[in-house]
Write a structure and sequence with these properties.
Layout (H helix, E strand, L loop, with lengths): L1 E4 L1 E4 L2 E9 L16 H24 L9 H13 L4 H11 L3 H17 L4 H21 L13 E5 L4 H6 L3 E6 L7 H9 L3 E3 L4 H4 L5 E5 L4 E4 L3 H21 L16 E6 L4 H7 L5 E5 L13 H14 L4 E5 L26 H7 L1 H14 L4 E6 L5 H20 L10 E5 L2 H5 L1 H7 L2 E4 L1 H9 L17 H17 L3 E3 L10 H6 L4 E4 L4 H10 L2 H12 L4 H13 L2
Helix pairs in contact: 1-2, 1-3, 1-5, 2-5, 3-4, 4-5, 10-11, 11-13, 13-14, 16-18, 21-22
Bound molecules: phosphoenolpyruvate and magnesium ion.
Length: 571
Amino acid sequence: MFSIHGTGIGGGIVIGRARVLESRQRDVPRYRLGPAQLESELSRLETAIEVVRAELFALAEHLPADGPAEARALLDVHAMILDDPALAQAARDAMREHLWNAEWAFSAQAGHLAAQFDEFEDEYLRERGRDVQQVAERVIRVLSGSTAGSKVGAETAIFVAEDISPADMLSLRSAIGFGIDLGGTTSHTAILARSMNVPAVVGLGHASRLVLDDDWLILDGEAGLVIVAPDETVLAEYRHRQAAGELERERLKRLLHVPTATVDGVKVGLFANIERPEEAERALAAGAEGVGLFRTEFLFMNRRDLPDEDEQFEAYRAAVAAMQGRPVTIRTLDVGADKAVPALGGTAPQNPALGQRAIRYCLAEPQVFLMQLRAILRASAFGNARLLLPMLAHSHEIDQALRLVDLAKGQLRGRGLAFDERLPVGGMIEVPAAAITAGLFVRKLDFLSIGTNDLIQYTLAIDRSDHEVASLYEPFHPAVLRLIGMTIRTARKAGTPVAVCGEMAGDWAATRLLLGMGLTEFSMHPASLLRVKQEILRADASKLAPRVSRLLTSDDPLRVRALLARLVEDA
Ligand code: PEP
Ligand code: MG
């Protein structure tokens, strides 16, 4: 028995037999062609590319209606890479120039291209190099005459691989878990695993070489752990944990229609974070009272062009309509840092998280911003929309953004298009400067939403996507808690609605703390809603308030941790 540690993507615990998928690129056949063989080798490559294109198309065509919303977009990205001249044309050129066989030329070119992505500081862009390698693997697999997942039977298994492309992931229908050597939490593979709700661990290093076919595995998607060939005691322990987890999820479903309020009658609003309009329905089914954060930048990612006003309008309208009159908080473009949008171009900044991202970008590119504002305003005629501005730090940023909202309204009036004249405009509090001067924000804006993910990053000076400093990313640092507490207090005093929409809102271990600070609006991944609801139903806000006030006066992280643990235990 031994264990391998990686990064958990979620999905719970799974126990099963391993299926290890080989990496076709490791043993790529390399030989030189005779000049007379070149033409037939070129057409062999053409056929392989055609086959892969057809495979990707067939997968997209046969996606189940209730399948993950991201799947189609990910397949499109791979089809795009397949057609990219920097890959296919360059491989043909290399074949002509060096008389390399097709596998050799294609894998070499994919290697070059992926290496260029590796140069990026930005984690998201680095991960795109994996997409290139995955497409190349698919082509090489066809060239070598084998079919995708040929050793995959119908029996369920935990798939272990150096990497798995989103397309392969979708075709591995018997998968009950994924253990992957490469990748981080923002890899497409991770994103897809999360939305398929299959337990997965990425960044496992050399798992695909250490694990053997048919090994028994325990994969813990929460803890980011794979235990290989567990002994009976460990197996029994994890079987118990797994059963308890499943029972808990079933039990929580009973809370779906229970109104959300604390024991002492404080009503709490539970909202969902979504990335695509299709997720609105899932949010509704999970019991969300609305969308607290629609991260619109996902509409702009993984494509070469920008979505125009009509395309954006359709997406926002779809989300607003799906929520049937419930509020849908649409956040304007939060690009930059870990969320790259190739269509917006620009050079890689020195320090992306501190550079021209989010509202800074939008104010510098008012035409892009105005187009989005018009699309959001138009969608507001179809339901209950709200507009949310990310990354604000300065008073003049709010003023400028509000002036542009007015300008967009004027443009729509000129075109005779309907919109909600009183569309509420809110601001995200995710920079310490904004939390400290929240008094100014409540005077200018209709509501606030605290983005704890960035607030932690900027308060502690820890890049949230850098795994080397991940252990210093501490949500419960006294400074972070004080900034959150201050913001909530200021907003409540002014009568301005305030929510938390960062990951902390979905962490049930933080629910009592936030309730004790006076928070009554939480927005999170739909999967966390019921667990947080359970905490709220058991909590007494009036008793929590003085305990949390005391906790917030301490500078001592250990004491804060201890007080926090007691808050959670005293259920
Ligand atoms: C946050 O920063 O907490 C937040 C919700 O925004 P994002 O995670 O999209 O940066
Ligand atoms: Mg943020």
